Amino acid sequence: MARSNVFLLFLITFLSLVSCDSNRVFDTYKSVPNKWHKDSIVSFNIAPPDSTNAYNLFVNLRNTNAYKFSNLFLIVEMQFPHGKTVKDTLEYRMADPTGKLLGVGYTDVKENKLWYKEAVIFNETGNYIVKIQHAMRENGKVNGVEELIGITDVGFRIEHATKSN
């Protein structure tokens, strides 16, 4: 009986936290196999919410303590419905100066919500595609990190820009 009460309490708490997220418009994750290969692209197909409001865009990541770098370089590409493509190389801090991983989470899995673009208006009709791949390199080495260890999930999130985070 006690086990079912704990589960019920957890379920109610979880649902109330999720339902309070009124900023969320789009929020999904895709799992990364044991290692994120440098040529592996995580892709999201997005039907734009509307063409009149501004939205903030985020890359979401889940990582474990196996992630050994203090930063993360990503290549994020947004393909617009009518052929335009915007490609950005982004750098994010993943650990503080002591080496402690940043992010939210009580276990060894940390969740990071990383800014991508602010106040974006989806003014083209049709689906947008967002592609994300890592671009990590070790100091002093020319070739990129072939297989990045410690990233478990890559996500993409769209929020209303007019509401506070």
UniProtKB/TrEMBL annotation:
<dbReference type="Pfam" id="PF14109">
    <property type="entry name" value="GldH_lipo"/>
</dbReference>
<protein>
    <submittedName>
        <fullName>Gliding motility protein GldH</fullName>
    </submittedName>
</protein>
<dbReference type="InterPro" id="IPR020018">
    <property type="entry name" value="Motility-assoc_lipoprot_GldH"/>
</dbReference>
<keyword id="KW-0732">Signal</keyword>
<feature type="signal peptide">
    <location>
        <begin position="1"/>
        <end position="19"/>
    </location>
</feature>
